[in-house]
Amino acid sequence: MLPHTRRQRIRELIQKRRNMKIGEISRELGVSEMTIYRDIQPLLEEGLVKKIYGGITLNQADPVPSPTIYGCTLCGRQVDPRLAYRLILPGKKTETTCCCHCGLLRHSQLSDQVLQAVCQDFFSSTTLSSRTTWYVMGSEPVIRCCHPQVLCFERKDTAEKFVKGFGGVVLSFGEAMQRLKKEMETDPTCGCSEHTHN
């Protein structure tokens, strides 16, 4: 079972049962407890669940919509959890964008307010801190999201290997944000096929 599939299953289980122990989720999905701890991290950051002793509970005080149902904060596209970029803001507020393209643009708009931002490795779906992530822009495979597409990689060497096979350029967090802003200013075709960014 792929990580994003497990997270969706955990989301369904916790919404149905309200409280679950980590060991219980581990047995149900047939993976280690360490894997479950990694899988629940995006759900904690979204505010969907909160930690309790030995497990998690549905955060009923301030429920956050599932990103698979609701749209990108910036462009309105439906959010694919595998590509999502999440911004954690003061007051337990979370914004989710459809991809790193919109995530980096929104991050630059809110710069001082962002407490933390996370995205997922393009291959492994591992949750990454956006500031330590390596970004690939201008590669050939089309993921059917915003243009220019921006893909995330945990390791620079993996990103460089991807670029050797599929083109593009590897950028750090700051470089990716600057380059994306510059391209948005100079290329009228940049953005989402359905919406434009202001």
UniProtKB/TrEMBL annotation:
It holds the Pfam family HTH_DeoR. Transmembrane segments: none annotated. Residues 3-58 form the HTH deoR-type domain. Gene3D superfamilies: 3.30.70.2050, Winged helix-like DNA-binding domain superfamily/Winged helix DNA-binding domain. It comes from the Bacteria. PROSITE patterns: HTH_DEOR_2. InterPro entries: DeoR_HTH (IPR001034), N2O_reductase_NosL (IPR008719), WH-like_DNA-bd_sf (IPR036388), WH_DNA-bd_sf (IPR036390). Keywords: Transcription, Transcription regulation. One of its GO terms (molecular function) is DNA-binding transcription factor activity. This is DeoR/GlpR transcriptional regulator. It comes from Kroppenstedtia pulmonis. The lineage of its organism: Bacteria, Bacillati, Bacillota, Bacilli, Bacillales.
